[in-house]
Write a structure and sequence with these properties.
Elements lengths: L1 H19 L25 H7 L6 E8 L2 E5 L2 H9 L13 H5 L7 E8 L2 E5 L2 H8 L2 H15 L8
Organism: Ruegeria haliotis
Keywords: Signal
Protein name: YHS domain-containing protein
Length: about 160
């Protein structure tokens, strides 16, 4: 099953790679935000996502820039929580699909397809990659962490 999913994903990457991947180490949208940095997590408020399990679009008026990417929040309080402890809210693997990273690829991470496990936020390309990750959260997350150290600085098109 995993090999079928992986083959399907690899076949579709050339169709979506250019618009979906604007950065090598952080998955950002094309263009820049009002803050002058590319937008991360498709503009979804990561504080609300982690704390409430609800993907809600944030607002440019409540934005913060971290590590060269802009993050939007629904409230000033959420922005302040993020600024006080970004590590608590940042998605793993630069916001790329954690299952994809586990197999050495950088697929777009969709904040509508997410998992919060052991206090960490994981994003996935789609429901199928999320389901594959859920088959072995501990093992797949360890593999993804190991792979991330190898592919983090490699351009998407070179993987």
């Amino acid at each position: 099953m995993k090999s079928l999913i992986l083959a399907s994903l690899i076949a579709t990457v050339p169709l979506i790679a250019a618009p979906a991947f604007a950065a090598d180490e952080i998955n950002v949208s094309s263009g820049i935000s009002a803050a002058g940095a590319p937008l991360a997590v498709h503009g979804v408020d990561v504080v609300t996502l982690v704390n409430d399990g609800n993907p809600v679009d944030g607002f440019a008026t409540h934005s913060a820039t971290y590590d060269g990417a802009s993050y939007y929040f629904t409230t000033a309080e959420n922005r302040e929580a993020f600024e006080a402890n970004p590590a608590a809210y940042l998605p793993q693997h630069g916001g790329f699909c954690s299952f994809g990273v586990s197999v050495g690829k950088k697929f777009d991470g969709d904040p509508d397809q997410y998992l919060v496990a052991d206090g960490k936020l994981y994003l996935f390309l789609n429901a199928a990659t999320r389901a594959s990750f859920l088959e072995d959260v501990s093992g797949t997350s360890k593999t993804a962490d190991s792979q991330w150290s190898n592919i983090k600085s490699i351009a998407v098109g070179e993987l």
